[in-house]
């Protein structure tokens, strides 16, 4: 009879341990997902900022070249 009680207790402990492991795994996955998402957002922002800088620089270069060409009489 005591053996049956110990076996039930062992199963309960094993079940609780498995649930704890599953919950810890799910929490870890959530942290990984959030970290990955934050990293992706940061990379997207860097790419956007870099593209805006490239566009502005290209615009400024084009305007400078146009002004230079007008001064030399090459452009109207």
TrEMBL record:
Source superkingdom: Eukaryota
Family matches, as InterPro entries: ADIRF (IPR034450)
GO biological process: positive regulation of fat cell differentiation; positive regulation of transcription by RNA polymerase II
CC terms in the record's Gene Ontology section: cytosol; nucleoplasm
Protein name, UniProt field: Adipogenesis regulatory factor
